[in-house]
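Typical record was shown:
=====
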Amino acid sequence: MSTTPNEPQDPRSAVPADPNTGDPRAAGHGGVDGVPAGQQYGQAGGKYGTAEYNPGQYTGVTERPGTLDKLLKLTMASLGIYVLSGIVGLIAVSTIDFVGVYRNMGLDSATATEMAGKAGGVGGPTGSIISLIIGIALYLLVWTNLKKGKNWARILGTVFAAIAILGGLFGLIGTFVYPAPWNIIMIVLALLKVVVDILWIVTAYKASTSAWFTQNQVQR
């Protein structure tokens, strides 16, 4: 019976490790081809050659900017002027002599009285209060979600601010119907609100504010 030839072996395995020669096998490092384990993937980095985590390394995260706090304050300022204008408007409406206004427009007494009744019903206290409450709710909706970093709240607030600016400018014409000093007060409040709403839009789209909202949108 013939014998199976022996498989070739690494000649180095037959030579015992000599501690005096600095052979890594003698130190128990278990290296390959004379390279100690742990150095096979490079001297620096993680297990697979990646950079180790550095807690102090910049991650590119944008911190909450100061412009956001300014935006929230402008939202509350606009809300305050809105509420004050609504209250002044309710008081001013009650001082208007609608019959006299329509008579001055050339209408007879019967028609003027009828038109005055309709005007009082459309813009009466109940309707004005309901509109005021709805407006307050929308303001709080925008303010709450701006604070949470919701970009849709910034867009919604922009739409409301733009409408308020246009409405405030065109509404200046109607203030002359009110008697003094209410007409002067309403003009001042309307112009002040236009300024605040313009500042709101400018602040909402500053670079730092936009970067923060974009970051929160991506993270979600």
Q: What stands out?
A: The chain is about 60% helix and 0% strand. Confidence is low (pLDDT under 50) at residues 26-30, 38-51, 53-59. Helices lie at 66-93, 98-104, 109-122, 125-147, 151-171, 182-204, 207-219.
